[in-house]
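Exercise 7.
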Amino acid sequence: MTTQAGQLAKTAHSTAVNRARPSLGSRIASGVGGGAVRVLLLLVGLFWLVPTIGLLLSSLRSPEDMSGSGWWKVFTAPSQLTVDNYQKLLENSDITNSLLNTVLITVPATLLVVVIGSLAGYAFAWMEFPGRDWWFLGVVGLLVVPVQVALIPIAELFGKIGVFGSVTGVVLFHVGYGLPFAVFLLRNFFAEIPRELLEAARLDGAGELRLFARVVMPLGGPAIASLGIFQFLWVWNDMLVALVFSDSGSQPITVALQTQVRQFGNNIDVLAPGAFISMVIPLAVFFAFQRQFVSGVMAGAVK
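Solution. The predicted structure, written as tokens, is:
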């Protein structure tokens, strides 16, 4: 009995020691938040920024310097930096007009998708009408339709109504293809709003539009901001739709840069600053609304 009791005591002691001693996995997990890992993540982030930095420095060098050496030569010869390329870019009417067209396409396409998607998402979430669930399933089904499938039929339709080759046609296409995702995202987000909150507002005499503007929109701000960022980036960086539905007078910056390559070959003095401006504007928009974007992602994860 004494021997068995001693063995049991040893077993209990070893078990307690094992429990007190952190496992290998827990030690690795606790070390993830250490300074070494933070330095590693910082290095990875800087590595991903290398192409952006290289494009910026290339846009600030003369064509002769770019053809003679790599952009990293700037660190040993900073006298190579110049803004002449950007002056040439501003004198290039094709690039400047395409930048304006890009704004005229992206801003309306983003605003229309956000506004219409918000109204439709609220209707599908909280308004009763015949066939609501079936209509919503139809909207969800549109998410799986590839863009390439609709290019030719919609191009023929736009040609018949007279908007093919114009900024309006490009905007309409982006709005039509952006709405299914917008409605799906916002409907699911709005459906998580407590019903009691909406009923209390209705008891206070709020109509549907006032309820949408005063209650639903403020609560859905993070999701709406996330949708706006996604739509803006998609439309700004698009080239396939613009290649099909725009002409020389309505082409955005992506098509204009591609045309410059085809026409003039190695005119890097125009392409480099144009590409950097085309890239830096979406980055600025993303970082400007980064807090709202993260809030929307976290709210969707919690829900």
